[in-house]
Amino acid sequence: MIIVPVKEGESIDRALKKLKRKFEKTGVVKELRERQKFTKPSVKHRDEVNRAIYIQQIQDKEAAM
Questions:
Q1: Which of 19, 48, 59, 63 has the smallest C-beta neighbourhood within 10 Å, fewest atoms?
Q2: From the CA atom positions of the chain, what is the Rg in Å?
Q3: What angle do helix axes 28-35 and 12-26 make, rounded to 10 degrees?
């Protein structure tokens, strides 16, 4: 359960902003969206490999400079 302490005189907008930020950090929304559909293990693996290749290319460009 996510708890957002609200200080005396603090606006509701500020409290909602804190709540949204905490939700983003915990990854609840991301996990819920991912659970809505089934992704095959081969597709997950392909995405991981593509992500790793992309990150490696960025690191190589930074190292070359």
A1: 63
A2: 19
A3: 60
Q: 4 with 18: CB under 8 angstroms?
A: yes
**Can you tell me the distance from the alpha carbon of 17 to that of 4, in angstroms, rounded to the nearest whole number?**
10
Report field, pTM of the whole predicted structure over 0.85: no
Cα distances from 30 to residues 25, 27, 60, in angstroms, run 10, 5, 30
When pLDDT is averaged across residues 50-57 and rounded to a whole number, the result is 98
Report CA-CA distances (Å) from 34 to 28, 31, 37, 50, 54.
10, 5, 6, 18, 22
Which tokens belong to 16? 């909602």
